[in-house]
Design a protein that fits this description.
This protein is an alpha/beta fold. The chain folds into four domains: 2-40 and 153-173; 48-145, Nucleic acid-binding proteins (OB fold (Dihydrolipoamide Acetyltransferase, E2P)); 254-445, Rossmann fold, CATH 3.40.50.300; 456-613, 3-Layer(aba) Sandwich (Rossmann fold), CATH 3.40.50.300. The chain contains 25 helices and 22 strands. The strands form four sheets. Strands 6-7-4-3-2-5-8 form a seven-stranded mixed β-sheet. Keywords: ATP-binding, DNA damage, DNA recombination, DNA repair, DNA-binding, Helicase, Hydrolase, Isomerase, Nucleotide-binding.
Length: 697
């Protein structure tokens, strides 16, 4: 049976080798299974006929039946057009063609009855439709058709005469052949509990819906099934890992208690305490920890990471902390060194620029077990970096590392996998976290340390420049420092760098009394460090920079951020940038500068920033605006291989599907019960590498 859906599409009537090659290349459709799951993205309503008298220009597409009274060719050269005079009992209108005139002219017969479909436009008192679809009125179409599917296509396919109609015809052929081979993939109990129609009915109605109601039911069924299998795969992975992966048991809290009583620099928030409890429970459970720690910029994730390292070090193990950039690795190192020194815990930094002699020392100290904590970049993944007993690996800003890179770190301990803590300051919406990291346990730090005031965010237009400059002057006079950020977007780096330099010049002109730093990605590391040091020490009052300051620059005295061309940034990036201020006890400000002309999406982004400081609210809005692929770079990594579900809109459905998957695995982890055989069959028909278990193959 699976053999049928693995058949190459070239054997389908109306396809053949040439069309098949085009569909392979342009839409990645290779088999019957791929084709049947190429779902329409919208539908044209052919269920109703309008009369000419009922037309108005706000209507998207309309269907009219009438008689062709006559036709004529008007104009000459490239202005030549074919006009058909079309009438029904209520009035008359024009049908107009500018291309393919001769071919259409041969087909149209004055006096014959036709069905015309297209977008109406008004000229004076007259309506016309440009390039309508026209077919002779017959017994089969005189009472209206159905909802016509419109399929995703590429420009290249259209030029090769493969349009949505062609795909529709091919799909009809396939559904006729496939109808009796579509098997059910969800247990009857789940279908009943969630009011879902059978799989076969869903597939027929997603392509050629008999009514709006059936279309809605088909979408609901296919979305639910897809999300159910995504969750089932993740939960099954988690179960397997918990069974197979034993973890070292860490329960010696001596160093932790000492740190709490003697060296903790500030009281922990309740959220931090809760997260530490969750992690400590994992570390002493005997099962390998795999936990995601989410916390907004400045919420104190690093100190939580360090406290957890103390438990591992107390119990005789070593720890690694991997960060995506040298700046960030150095910052973690400096931040943790002062605590490690007080506690007499050996700590080292390993990055691409660590000198050879220093590396050798680090490698030896690691292998002997003398070095307890190693902080670094990708350099930690190199072959020669060997630990004596790696017990805890922490990965910071984990979405910047591939899965393969992370797993390399886990393999640094041959006898037993180290515990893994993945940290991110990018707030991930619940639905996305459940789908991307459904096999991880999730902890959230959702409050800021005491004494931090929320950052005030203001949106200003370029016309308010003088007013904004005066505000910056007042802030600097009061002893504060200012970041001014310009977008640097890859495609037009030359143009943007000029934009940054122009910005630097105009800031220097507007504030001749203040020293101004500049920072961008094209500078050499030592030049960057020099500028950062000048700013951090207060020698310069303003820093003009690109988004290189987004990650890891911590200057508590910098309390104002101006973001130029704020409409050119994504929401999560704006939020990350804003997190660079508000590090001290003073009131901080973020000023978003834009042109007056803004797209609808840009307006929503800016309003969201002004309205809230909550990273999770911002991430939810971002998900709705941009979709999951852009948000986490998952489009490229193939993590979200979704065919029909939409994480921005289908959150509640995802929750229900996850609950059903949990219930099923609790009741029958090996899927041995007869009523779950449909699920077992579906999973066993997958390729081992398949991400989306709901696919037909």
């Amino acid at each position: 049976m699976t053999g049928f859906f693995d058949t190459s599409i070239e054997y389908l009537k109306g396809v053949g080798p040439q069309r098949a090659a085009m569909l392979n290349k342009e839409l990645q459709i290779f088999t019957y299974g791929d084709l049947i799951q190429h779902y329409p993205f919208r539908y044209e309503d052919r269920t109703k006929f309008y009369t000419i008298k009922e037309l108005n220009e706000d209507m998207p597409f309309v269907q009219i039946k009438g008689v062709l009274k006559g036709k004529e060719l008007v104009g000459a050269g490239f202005k030549k057009r074919l006009v058909g005079y079309f009438a029904d009992d209520s009035g008359e209108m024009e049908l107009v063609w500018f291309q393919g005139i001769n071919w259409i002219n041969d087909k149209l017969k004055p006096g014959a009855a036709y069905v015309a479909f297209g977008k109406p436009a008004r000229f004076g008192n007259f309506f016309s439709i440009a390039h309508p679809e026209v077919e002779p009125l017959t017994v089969s179409n005189e009472n209206g058709g159905f909802l016509h599917p419109v399929y995703p296509l590429s420009e290249k396919l259209r030029t090769r005469k493969i349009d949505s109609k062609t795909l529709s015809r091919i799909m009809q052929q396939l559904l006729t052949l496939a109808e009796n081979r579509i098997r059910e993939t969800l247990p009857v109990s789940i279908q009943k509990a969630n009011h879902l129609i059978p799989k076969k009915e869903a597939l027929l109605n997603i392509h050629f819906p008999k009514s709006h109601e059936l279309l809605a039911q088909a979408r609901q069924r296919l979305k639910f099934e897809e999300l159910f299998y995504v969750q089932l795969r993740l939960l099954k992975m988690k179960l397997i890992r918990q069974e197979k992966m034993r973890g070292q048991v860490f329960q010696d809290a001596t160093l932790l208690t000492k740190f709490y009583h003697e060296h903790l620099p500030f009281p922990l928030t309740n959220a931090q305490k809760k997260v530490i409890k969750e992690i400590y429970a994992d570390l002493k459970s005997g099962q390998q920890m795999n936990r995601l720690l989410q916390g907004d910029v400045g919420s104190g994730k690093t100190i939580v990471g360090f406290i957890c390292m103390l438990v591992a070090v107390s119990s005789g193990a070593q720890c690694a902390l991997m960060a995506p950039t040298e700046i960030l690795a150095q910052q973690h190192y400096k931040g943790l060194q002062r605590y490690a020194d007080k506690m007499s815990i050996p700590l080292a930094l390993l990055t691409g620029s660590t000198k050879k002699a220093e590396r050798k020392k680090i490698h030896e100290a690691l292998q002997s077990g003398e070095l307890k904590i190693l902080i670094g970049t990708h350099a930690l993944l190199e072959e020669e970096v060997q630990f004596r007993n790696l017990g805890l690996s922490i990965v910071d800003e984990q979405h910047r590392f591939g899965v393969a890179q992370r797993s390399k770190l886990w393999q640094k301990n041959e006898s037993v996998y180290p515990h893994v803590l993945v940290m991110t300051a990018t707030p991930i919406p619940r639905t996305l976290a459940m789908t991307l990291y459904g096999d991880l346990d999730i902890s959230v730090i959702d409050e800021l340390p005491a004494g931090r005031k929320p950052i005030k965010t203001i949106h200003k237009f370029d016309a308010h420049r003088l007013q904004v400059n005066q505000f910056l002057r007042d802030q600097v006079e009061a002893g504060r420092q200012v970041y001014i950020v310009y977008p640097l977007i890859e495609e037009s780096e030359k143009l943007d760098l000029k934009h940054l330099m122009d910005g630097y010049e105009s800031v220097s002109r507007a504030f001749p009394d203040y020293a101004v730093s500049i920072l961008h990605g094209k500078m050499k590391p030592e030049a960057k460090d020099y500028e950062m040091k000048r700013f951090a020490s207060g020698e310069t009052k303003m820093m003009v920079a690109t988004t290189v300051i987004e990650v890891g620059v911590d200057v508590p005295n910098a309390s104002v951020m101006v973001i130029e061309n704020a409409e050119r940034f994504g929401l999560s990036q704006l939020h990350q940038l804003r997190g660079r201020v508000g590090r001290g006890a003073e009131q901080s400000y973020c000023i978003l500068m834009t042109d007056v002309k803004l797209s609808a999406d840009s307006k929503v982004r800016l309003q969201t920033m002004v309205k809230t400081n909550n990273g999770f609210d911002i991430a939810e809005t971002d998900l709705k605006l941009r979709g999951p692929g852009d948000l986490m770079g998952t489009q490229q990594s193939g993590v979200l291989d979704l065919l029909i579900a939409d994480l921005g809109k289908d959150g509640p459905l995802l929750q229900t599907a996850r609950e059903e998957a949990i219930k099923l695995l609790k009741d029958d982890p090996e899927l041995e019960k007869p009523e779950h055989s449909v699920v077992k069959t579906q999973i066993e028909s997958r390729r081992p590498s398949a991400m989306n278990w709901s696919r037909i193959s």
